[in-house]
């Protein structure tokens, strides 16, 4: 009983310390240079958003691990056995893969969106500002990229957690084919506009 109490106090203390550190980091923000903010208007906001979400998830994981360790300390759950058996290892592997997928998706979206927003930003290098048509096309590209990256990320995540995405892919293919037949003129106009602008 005394040993379980001591371990519980140690676990709660460590979890509170780590959670407090993460909370302080969440409250902080990254500040980019004025020139970088002019070139990439949404980059600072986007980076702070990603970092805040990642730290909040890390804090939730710390609390979850602390709860499991507390249960293990009182003999209600064998945490270390769970970690070393198939179920625990599989859960950790899945979480790591999900974290990597979300990380690279966020990096890819941030880079691509920032490049497009740089073209839309106020001129600071003597480069002529894009015209109304170019701005429309660039905004369209940004929105299309958001949809594409989000869709691919969701599909990969569903596959990682064991969902069979083959029917979803088949349905998406059929829907895309139907839309393509109904939007041939729109697609042709967009492609024509791209060649005119670039």
Automatic annotation (TrEMBL):
GO molecular function terms listed in the Swiss-Prot or TrEMBL record: mechanosensitive monoatomic ion channel activity
Cellular compartments annotated: Cell membrane
Keywords annotated in UniProt: Cell membrane, Membrane, Transmembrane, Transmembrane helix
UniProt xrefs under SUPFAM superfamilies: Mechanosensitive channel protein MscS (YggB), transmembrane region (SSF82861)
Domain of life of the native organism: Bacteria
Positions of transmembrane segments: 6-27, 47-74, 94-116, 137-159, 165-187
A Gene Ontology term for the protein's cellular component: plasma membrane
Protein name as catalogued: Putative mechanosensitive channel protein
Organism whose genome encodes this protein: Raoultella terrigena (Klebsiella terrigena)
Higher taxonomy: Bacteria, Pseudomonadati, Pseudomonadota, Gammaproteobacteria, Enterobacterales
């Amino acid at each position: 009983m005394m040993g379980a109490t001591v371990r519980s106090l140690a676990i709660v203390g460590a979890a509170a310390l780590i959670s407090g550190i993460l909370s302080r980091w969440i409250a902080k923000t990254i500040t980019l240079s004025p020139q970088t903010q002019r070139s990439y208007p949404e980059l600072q906001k986007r980076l702070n958003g990603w970092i805040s979400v990642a730290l909040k998830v890390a804090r939730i994981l710390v609390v979850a691990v602390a709860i499991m360790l507390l249960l293990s300390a009182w003999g209600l759950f064998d945490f270390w056995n769970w970690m070393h058996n198939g179920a625990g290892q599989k859960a950790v592997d899945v979480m790591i893969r999900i974290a990597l997928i979300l990380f690279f998706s966020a990096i890819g979206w941030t880079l691509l969106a920032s490049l497009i927003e740089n073209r839309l930003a106020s001129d600071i290098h003597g480069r002529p500002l894009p015209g109304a048509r170019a701005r429309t096309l660039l905004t369209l590209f940004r929105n299309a990229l958001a949809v594409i990256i989000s869709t691919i990320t969701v599909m990969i995540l569903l596959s990682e957690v064991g969902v069979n995405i083959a029917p979803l892919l088949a349905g998406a293919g059929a829907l895309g084919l139907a839309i393509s037949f109904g939007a041939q003129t729109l697609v042709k106009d967009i492609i024509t506009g791209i060649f005119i602008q670039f």
